[in-house]
Amino acid sequence: MDLLERDEPRDALAARLAEARSGHGSLTLVAGEAGIGKTSLVRGFCTDHAGEARVLRGWCDALSTPRPLGPIDDLAREAGGDLARVVHEGAGRYERFTAFLDTLTSPSAPVVVVIEDVHWADEATLDLLVFVARRMAQSNGCVIATYRDDELGPDHPLRRVLGNLVRLETVHRLRLEPLSADAVSRLAAPHGVDPVWLYRITGGNPYFVVELLAAESGGDVPESVRDTVLARVARLTPAARSTLNLLAVMPDRVDIDVIRHAMGDTDGIDECEHAGLVIASGTTVAFRHELARLAVERAIPATAVPELHRGALSSLAAMPEPDLARLAYHAGRAGDAEAVLKYCPVAAEQAARMGAYGAARSHCEVALRFADRLPPPRRAALHELSGTASARAGLIDEAIEAYERAEAAWREAEDLDRAGAAMATRGQYLWAAGRASEAHKVTSDSIVMLENRPPGPGLVAAYTYGAYLRMLSRDRPGAIDLGTRAIGLAERHGDLAMLSKALNVVDTSMWTIDPDRASAMMERSLAAAYESGDDQTIGLALGNWGSAAIEVRRYAEGDHRTQQDIEWCSGRDLDIGRDYSRAWLARSAFEQGDWSRAESIVDDLANREYGNVSTRTIALTVRGLLAVRRGDADGEALLAEAWRLALQAEDPPRMWPVAAGLAESAWLCGRTERIADLIGETYQLACDLKEPWAIGELGYWLWRAGGLSGPVPGMALPYALHVGGDWAGAARAWDSIGCPYEAAAARADSDDTDQLIAALQTFHRLGARPAANLVRRRLRGRGVLRPPRGPHRATLANPAGLTGRQLEVLRLLAAGLSNADIAGRLHISRRTADHHVAAILAKLGVASRHDAARVARDWAALGGPVER
């Protein structure tokens, strides 16, 4: 039947193809409920444009554990070339992603790539969509991905991906709506079916409509599509029905050779295709619609299902290059313990290599049902694989449990070396779960146990992870001691992965002890990371280098390495590592007085819930400090949330800046008596751990509150000069480092009028109103009756009290720029621009961009924001 009421989406796809033809590639997400006609729409579009574009198709499976990067395998068979080569050679996911991206560029014609049913996609395929969408703007590719939006629960992995894609200009969305009553009437008319009844029971779903009409059962039309499909099945011969049942337990497309092996011939396929139940295309066959497959599968007697899966397993295993994920799926459904233990672990390993950690974990779960049949070493290895996959998928509690079971199995095998390594690894996950005390105890216990035995790989892991925990807790001498021991053992045993981690721990821990030496040492740590060949280890080395340098205020070096890490992680879609470094870059920009840049970075980060709590804590701290120094009302609330996160994680490096920010807020508001209670314990912790910059910053605020009479041992030099009464020396020190706010704060304590005016001008330039007000009062006390004034934030020209950034956005909005254009002009994300526009509309009390633009023009007539 003709596609009714689909002209607009077809035109939209045609527009995307035209853009691709001119070198502007895009990803279009076609959404809608099951049976709404997504596949029919895309198939019709591809048919219409087959002569002007190269069309490639891939599918996501309805397997309980889908094939890792299954669509790339499908596409490779059609595309050939480098994509087929990297798939055949078993290359890693980054190489496959890159080869796929290269496939989207053709010298002769645009390339249309269709990926069906991404709601069933594995994690690696979802990552592929993000990877491609971020990079295809200059290609001539037109990627179309279909998915069922009615099957996306709040925790569905695709929801996270859609959130990442929504900000990209290369991404477009189409949602197909049900047919109208008029369209259903047009379809029903030739069949003599009551259109009102048909529309009521189908809701306008095209598949339901077509299937019910095809049944041609008059007044006894089935009440569900299941009955409609089974009515067609009943007309098949027994042989064809057997073929259909086999196809029904094999989700998605099936190689015809598999059916031939199982059934002896392919006659049943032909009969099923003539009945309109399946579609044979090239070398594969699939149900016309997943709803039909489900209807057939659910009608199969439960006692017959395991035997069908055994037949599928046998036939798939006989193929020249069997798919491990499919073999594992059918082994599990058949309840074949031997096959499960043969295929599921290797399928899990393959999935992990591809970055599909949820799939790896699922395969492990199936295998672990039969784990009592395994010898303890294999069982332990399976638990470890499950734990690693769980951790990479963000399921930290499951990772902890898996490694606890792995440890028990290694003990059962009397392999204490591996048991100790499992203990130490579990310690890392306990830390990530915010259980710092347990983490330290577990790793310490592993070290004690293994030090009484001949040194082996287990002790390397225990030393390395023990050192890492000490570094995170800022026990730098302990981290260096254990890390140095780990380096020696890792070199002796040739453990490259642990060597790179141990070197990173030691080198990172040196920064407050000897920054110059630490900087030189980081080169070897980074070289070892590159030699390890692990993308995440390389990102960790770059990120630690950048954050460590920024923490001791060596901004040029820190910004360089942090930017390198952002680029490295962005190129490999390591979003958590990328955003952690972005948070540090925001902190660096804030401390160097580039508050607009800092704000543009953290606006996005602070509003997200992160697996990496440190990222959100840093972002909230920067955002809170910005608010405090600008005099915004929400500063303390933001810092309070950051404090809650840092305290919960027992994370001293995150606690110190937050405590200092709360003290600064109290001082600027004239509540100096609160400072000692706010920072006393945190300051003592900094002293105990001998952290110079934390001692300096927190000690400075204690001095402001009268809790210190002068500098203390271990205090960073600029703070020591200030607390010691050398305002000029402190200002020069801060100027040389590149911290204008702190330099102005030092000058603000001077008795020299010129220095006070210089401080006031700096505070004005930064937008630090509360600090500027304090300096202005001092100048008036010294007889300067008309000190320089800064911009007033809520005059008659700005009665809504918009922030400086919001005023910038409003001016661009009034000039007719879209949110995407505003984001590009201000170097912020599209989501941040959306957030600012929404906030502006709320503050102005208007409902539309048009009304906001009118207000902006009225303000311009008043002369804009005024100075006073």
Give the arrangement of secondary structure elements:
Blueprint lengths: L6 H15 L4 E7 L5 H11 L5 E6 L10 H10 L1 H8 L4 H11 L7 E6 L6 H13 L5 E8 L8 H9 L5 E5 L5 H8 L6 H8 L3 H10 L9 H9 L4 H11 L5 E2 H8 L3 H8 L3 E4 L2 E4 L2 H10 L5 H13 L6 H11 L2 H17 L3 H12 L7 H17 L3 H17 L3 H17 L3 H16 L5 H16 L3 H18 L2 H14 L5 H18 L2 H17 L3 H17 L3 H17 L3 H11 L7 H18 L4 H14 L3 H17 L6 H15 L2 H13 L12 H7 L3 H11 L2 H8 L5 H14 L2 H13 L22 H11 L4 H8 L3 H15 L4 H13 L7
Parallel strand pairs: 1-4, 1-5, 2-3, 3-4
Antiparallel strand pairs: 6-8, 7-8
Helix pairs in contact: 1-2, 3-4, 4-5, 5-6, 6-7, 8-9, 10-11, 11-15, 12-14, 12-15, 13-16, 16-17, 17-18, 18-19, 18-20, 19-20, 20-21, 21-22, 22-23, 22-24, 23-24, 24-25, 24-26, 25-26, 26-27, 26-28, 27-28, 28-29, 28-30, 29-30, 30-31, 30-32, 31-32, 32-33, 32-34, 33-34, 34-35, 34-36, 35-36, 36-37, ...
What class would the helix/strand composition place it in? mainly alpha
| Gap between N and C termini | 72 Å
* Strand ordering within the main sheet: 2-3-4-1-5
Residue runs with pLDDT of under 50 for 5 or more positions:
217-222, 792-797, 861-868
Biggest β-sheet, characterized? 5 strands, parallel
Provide structural commentary.
Helices cover 66% and strands 5% of the residues. The protein is mainly α. Among the domains are: 7-177, Rossmann fold, CATH 3.40.50.300; 182-221, no CATH class; 304-414, Alpha Horseshoe (Serine Threonine Protein Phosphatase 5, Tetratricopeptide repeat); 588-781, Serine Threonine Protein Phosphatase 5, Tetratricopeptide repeat, CATH 1.25.40; 804-861, Winged helix-like DNA-binding domain superfamily/Winged helix DNA-binding domain (Arc Repressor Mutant, subunit A, Orthogonal Bundle), CATH 1.10.10.10. The protein has a five-stranded parallel β-sheet with strand order 2-3-4-1-5, with helices on both faces. A hairpin with a 2-residue loop joins strand 7 (278-281) and strand 8. The longest helix is centred in the middle third of the chain and has 18 residues, at 476-493.
